C-alpha cells in the first residue's frame, strides 16, 4: 500500500469552529488531492496540489482552503465548519501529470477522515 | 464537464458472475479505472484500461470498454462474499490529472 496517512481519523465539531485535516505521504509524489465522499455523489474533488505551494480548486471548493508547505503534507482547512460539510474526507496522491499510454499511474488513497459537524 | 454514471446497487448470489456498468460522457477520456472500497476504508485500485483497448482480463476480473457507446463494465467471475463492497468507476483524459468518479455501485453478495 502507498504510504498515506490522514489525521485525525474521526472528528466531531460544532458549527462555526475551524477544522484542519492533515494528509501525510511518504511516497514523494508530486500531486495530492482532497476529496469528499457523500452517499449518491461518489467522490468530489475539493482542492488539489501540483507541487509545494501550488494548489488549485476542484469541483466543490467553497468553504475550504488548502496549504502545502512541504511535499509530504497537504492540509485541508474548514475556516468555519457547517453541517453541510459533514462527510468523509479522502486524501489521494499521484505521481505524474502527462503520461504515456503505457503508464499505469493512478491515484492512491488514504484511509479517510470522518468529520461530523453538529 | 465529464459526467460518470453508475447504478447504485447490485445484488448477486455467491458463485454467480457480477457485472457492474459505468457510462461516461467525454469521448476524450483516455484512462478508465475501477476502484473497490470496503467498509471504513479508502479506495483501492482494482484494475484499469486504456482507451485503445477493448478488453482486459485480470484473474476473476474482466473489463470491457465500448468506446462508441462510452460504456465501461466490470465483470467479476465466481463472486464471493469478500467481493461485497462499493465499486467506483473513474475516468480521466490524456491532459490533466483530475479524475472524475462515478457515484459508486454497492455490490451485495448473498450466500
Secondary structure topology:
The complex is a heterodimer of chains A (118) and B (111).
Chain A: E1 4-7, E2 10-13, E3 19-25, E4 31-38, E5 42-51, E6 54-57, E7 64-70, E8 73-78, E9 87-94, E10 108-109, E11 113-117
Parallel strand pairs in A: 2-11
Antiparallel strand pairs in A: 1-3, 3-8, 4-5, 4-9, 5-6, 7-8, 9-10, 9-11
Chain B: E1 4-6, E2 9-13, E3 18-24, E4 29-37, E5 43-50, E6 55-58, E7 61-66, E8 71-76, E9 85-93, E10 100-101, E11 105-110
Parallel strand pairs in B: 2-11
Antiparallel strand pairs in B: 1-3, 3-8, 4-5, 4-9, 6-7, 7-8, 9-10, 9-11
Structure characterization notes:
The complex is a heterodimer of chains A (118) and B (111). Chain A is mainly beta. Helix content of chain A is 0%, strand content 55%. Chain A has no helices and eleven strands. Chain A has strands at 4-7, 10-13, 19-25, 31-38, 42-51, 54-57, 64-70, 73-78, 87-94, 108-109, 113-117. In chain A, the strands form two sheets. In chain A, strands 2, 4, 5, 6, 9, 10 and 11 form a seven-stranded mixed β-sheet that branches. A four-stranded antiparallel β-sheet of chain A has the order 1-3-8-7, with no helix packed on it. In chain A, a hairpin with a 2-residue loop joins strand 5 and strand 6 (54-57). Chain A starts with a strand and ends with a strand. In chain A, 36% of the residues are buried. Chain B starts with a strand and ends with a strand. Chain B is built from no helices and eleven strands. Chain B has 111 residues and is mainly beta. Chain A binds chain B through residues 4, 31, 35, 40-45, 48, 50, 58, 90, 92, 94, 96-99, 101, 104, 106-112, and chain B through 4, 8, 30-31, 33, 35, 40-45, 48, 50, 52, 88, 90, 94-95, 97-99, 101-104.
Concise description?
Chain A is mainly β and about 120 residues long. Chain A has strands at about 5, 10-15, 20-25, 30-40, 40-50, 55, 65-70, 75-80, 85-95, 110, 115.
Number of strands of chain B: 11
Structural class of chain A: mainly beta
Please tell me how large the radius of gyration of chain A is.
14 Å
How much strand of chain A? over 45%
Dominant shape of chain B: globular
What's the total number of strands of chain A? 11
Count of DSSP H/I helices of chain A: 0
| Poorly predicted runs of chain B | none
How are helices and strands ordered from N to C of chain A?
EEEEEEEEEEE
Q: Of all protein chain pairs, which has the greatest interface, and how many residues does each chain bring to it?
A: A-B, 28 and 26 residues
Shape of chain A: globular
Low-confidence stretches of chain A: 98-102
Kindly report how far apart the N and C termini of chain A lie. 34 Å
Output the helix-strand order of chain B: EEEEEEEEEEE
The largest sheet of chain A, given as strand count, sense and whether it forms a barrel, is: 7 strands, mixed
Could you tell me how far the N terminus lies from the C terminus of chain B, measured between alpha carbons in angstroms? Answer: 40 Å
Structural class, judged by helices and strands of chain B?
A: mainly beta
Oligomer: heterodimer
Amino acid at each position: 500500500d502507498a504510504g498515506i496517512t490522514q489525521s485525525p481519523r474521526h472528528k466531531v465539531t460544532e458549527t462555526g469552529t475551524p477544522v484542519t485535516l492533515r494528509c501525510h505521504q511518504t511516497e514523494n509524489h508530486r500531486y495530492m488531492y482532497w476529496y469528499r465522499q457523500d452517499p449518491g455523489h461518489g467522490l468530489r474533488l475539493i482542492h488539489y496540489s501540483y507541487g509545494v505551494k501550488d494548489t488549485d480548486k476542484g469541483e466543490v471548493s467553497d468553504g475550504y482552503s488548502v496549504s502545502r508547505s512541504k511535499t509530504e503534507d497537504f492540509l485541508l482547512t474548514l475556516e468555519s465548519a457547517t453541517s453541510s460539510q459533514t462527510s468523509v474526507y479522502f486524501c489521494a496522491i499521484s505521481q505524474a501529470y502527462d503520461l504515456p499510454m503505457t503508464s499505469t499511474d493512478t491515484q492512491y488513497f488514504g484511509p479517510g477522515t470522518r468529520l461530523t459537524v453538529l | 464537464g465529464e459526467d460518470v454514471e453508475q447504478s447504485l446497487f447490485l445484488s448477486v448470489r455467491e458463485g454467480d458472475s457480477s457485472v457492474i456498468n459505468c457510462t461516461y460522457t467525454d469521448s476524450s477520456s483516455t484512462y478508465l479505472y475501477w476502484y473497490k472500497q470496503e467498509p471504513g476504508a479508502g479506495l483501492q485500485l482494482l484494475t484499469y484500461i486504456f482507451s485503445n483497448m477493448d478488453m482486459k482480463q485480470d484473474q476473476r476480473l474482466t473489463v470491457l470498454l465500448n468506446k462508441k457507446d462510452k460504456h465501461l463494465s466490470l465483470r467479476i467471475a465466481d463472486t464471493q462474499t469478500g467481493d461485497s463492497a462499493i465499486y467506483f468507476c473513474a475516468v480521466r483524459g490524456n491532459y490533466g490529472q483530475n479524475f472524475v468518479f462515478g457515484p459508486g455501485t454497492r455490490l451485495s453478495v448473498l450466500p
